[in-house]
Specification:
- The complex is a heterodimer.
- By secondary structure, chain A is α+β, with helices and mostly antiparallel strands.
- Chain A has two domains: 73 residues, no CATH class; 93 residues, Immunoglobulin-like, CATH 2.60.40.
- Helix content of chain A is 43%, strand content 29%.
- Chain A contains four helices and eight strands.
- The longest helix of chain A is centred in the middle third of the chain and has 29 residues.
- Chain A is elongated, with a radius of gyration of 24 Å.
- The relative contact order of chain A is 0.13.
- The mean pLDDT of chain A is 85.
- Chain B folds into two domains: 112 residues, no CATH class; 276 residues, ABC transporter involved in vitamin B12 uptake, BtuC (Orthogonal Bundle).
- In chain B, strand 2, helix 8 and strand 3 form a beta-alpha-beta unit.
- The longest helix of chain B has 38 residues.
- A three-stranded mixed β-sheet of chain B has the order 3-2-4. Chain B has a two-stranded antiparallel ribbon with strand order 1-5.
- By secondary structure, chain B is mainly alpha-helical.
- In chain B, helix 3 packs across helix 13, helix 10 packs across helix 12 and helix 13 packs across helix 14.
- Classes of the chains: A alpha+beta, B mainly alpha.
- Chains A and B meet through helix 3 of A and helix 6 of B.
């Protein structure tokens, strides 16, 4: 849905920028155009338009906003956990990763696993082990997925302390 | 004598089913807890759909076979949330939100068509269901994935467009049924159940003679109860009174200034939208969407259950709905096993159930036509001053 919205916005925005108007102003102009059409076709006065059509429009916009909010809070995301070398970051010897306190995934070098989560953000907890099996470090981070469908988390980058550990989905 | 005859004639259908069930339940050998569990599940699954039939009956439009239009709208909503990956209660509500405008448009169309076929609403809506089914199949089989964007490859056929025959609704399976996890348990079964499921389920009550535990789809039952309250309230509103007036006599209602056609369209729109929600509740319980067939039998099963509950084409109550769900689905549960235990073949029991259930529907429709003709004849005789009568 986000991709479709972005696609449509991408079609409209260049024209709006060329005319020098914002999205809000474009909405108001569209409203006036709708009223003019109704006035010409059905003789609807502006007051009646405000009282009936505008109210209906507000209800429709409210329902659309509710739909988007439900989409935002209810979307399921696939989180790919990747323990492969990226640029200068080497894979970790062993790392146990849990999402939102769920079942931990045990990843060895070059491993990749997947977990599912619902909602716009989640908490990731990574326990990094050394080659003798002792915990070296525990990292806990909150990641915002937003509306995007799937993401991949590079565990070597996460362990390295960089903030660029969220990568596009391999699919 | 006349009163006794009328009482028997009015309740003949439920009485037949009660008698058949009384024989079939012991023959099936099912325990009471199993039967109660199955019935509660089926009440939660089907009641909403059947309740959606009440409003058109109130408006004198008979049994709304066009409810499959609403069911299709609900299924389109479910397909979209599956594609977008929206799960849980938000997914279910979003499916309702997407299905609502489609159901409204289909309801308005259906209402306009039925207004042109007054007196033949049932057969018209039945055929209209087939027509819209064609449009639905074209949309889902050809337009989805081609014109309508579907990004989830698990939903699409291997050719790249068209939705697969079976769609998993794992993301919303049982979300409403298990929203308030509640059980009724026997005193012995309680410990066993809790040791398996931990503290996740709330024990509503303990009944000493009960074996094991019975899960109650409490949230679904609450939604159904709210819908019943809505129907009771709706009957008392101006619109509800108008519908009842139209149901009694369209010409009188028209003479008294009630906009008959508009009110009939509203009745169908409400029924279609509620059928859309009913289908979503039904499918969240099932957990699988059969894209091209799920809606097919929705109307037939709901109408069969309502008639078996003692309703007629012109009169139906909330009590008829629940009596119908219990009796109709009790037959579904016990008939195959009773047939197997009695004759040694489950197919015989199933055949018997189908034969009796749909035979009863035919009889109740014939009885309704016969009663209506008799009433018309009586009214005609009273106008003539009962000269040639009894």
């Amino acid at each position: 849905m986000t991709e479709i919205l972005n696609e449509y916005a991408g079609l409209v925005m260049p024209y709006l920028e060329a005319w020098g108007i914002s999205l809000c102003q474009a909405g108001l102009i569209a409203l006036v155009v709708v009223w003019l059409l109704l006035y010409v076709l059905r003789g609807v006065s502006f007051f009646r338009f405000l009282m009936r059509w505008y109210q209906r429009l507000i209800v429709v916009c409210g329902l659309a906003a509710l739909g988007f909010w439900l989409f935002y809070i209810g979307r399921e995301h696939q989180i790919f956990l990747d323990n492969k070398a990226v640029n200068d970051y080497k894979p970790l010897e062993q790392v146990n990763v849990s999402i939102n306190g769920g079942e931990a995934a045990e990843l060895m070098p070059r491993d990749r696993d997947m977990r599912k989560t619902v909602g716009p953000e989640f908490e990731i907890k990574a326990e990094i082990f050394d080659d003798k099996g002792g915990i070296v470090n525990t990292i806990t981070r909150r990641v915002v997925v937003g509306c995007s469908k799937d993401i991949m988390i590079s565990l070597p980058i996460l362990a390295g302390g960089s903030e660029d550990f969220v990568m596009p989905s391999p699919r | 004598m006349r009163k006794i005859f009328d009482l028997v004639a009015n309740n003949a259908v439920p009485a037949v089913f009660i008698i058949i069930s009384a024989f079939a339940i012991p023959l099936s050998g099912y325990s009471a807890s199993y039967l109660i569990q199955e019935l509660l599940t089926r009440i939660g699954r089907n009641s909403f759909l059947i309740l959606s039939l009440l409003i058109p009956i109130m408006a004198g439009m008979g049994l709304n076979f066009g409810m499959v239009l609403g069911a299709m709208a609900g299924q389109i909503g479910l397909l979209f949330i599956c594609d977008w990956g929206v799960v849980g209660i938000p997914g279910m509500v979003l499916a309702c939100l997407i299905g609502t405008p489609i159901a409204i448009v289909l309801g308005i169309f259906c209402g306009h068509v039925l207004n042109r076929a007054k007196g033949r609403e049932m057969v018209t809506s039945y055929i209209l269901g087939f027509f819209i089914n064609g449009v639905y199949q074209m949309t889902v089989l050809y337009l989805m994935g081609w014109v309508i964007p579907i990004t989830n490859p698990a939903l699409l056929l291997s050719r790249g467009y068209g939705v697969r025959n079976a769609v998993s609704l794992l993301g919303i399976r049982g979300v409403l049924d298990n929203l308030i996890p509640t059980i009724i348990t026997g005193t012995q079964g309680a410990g066993q159940f809790l040791s398996v499921n931990g503290a996740k389920s709330y024990i509503l009550m303990q009944i000493p003679f009960l074996e094991g535990a019975i899960r109650i789809p409490l949230a679904t039952l609450v939604v159904i109860a709210l819908f019943c309250v809505f129907i009771v309230w709706f009957r008392k509103t101006k619109l509800g009174q108008d519908m009842r007036a139209i149901g009694q006599s369209q010409s009188v209602a028209d003479s008294s200034g009630i906009p008959v056609n508009r009110t009939r369209i509203i009745a169908i729109v409400i029924s279609t939208v509620l059928a859309c929600y009913g289908q979503i509740i039904y499918l969240q319980n099932m957990g699988t969407l059969n894209t091209y067939n799920s809606h097919d039998q929705t109307g037939m099963f709901s109408i069969a259950a309502l008639l078996i509950g003692g309703a007629s084409v012109s009169r139906a109550t909330i009590a008829n709905v629940f009596a119908g769900v219990i009796l109709f689905h009790l037959m579904f549960i016990v008939a195959p096993v009773a047939g197997k235990n009695l004759i040694g073949d489950a197919q015989i029991g199933e055949y018997f159930r189908v034969f009796v259930s749909y035979g009863i529907i035919a009889i109740s429709l014939v009885l309704h036509a016969w009663r209506r003709n008799r009433e018309r004849e009586a009214a005609r005789r009273s106008l003539r001053g009962n000269k040639g009568g009894e």
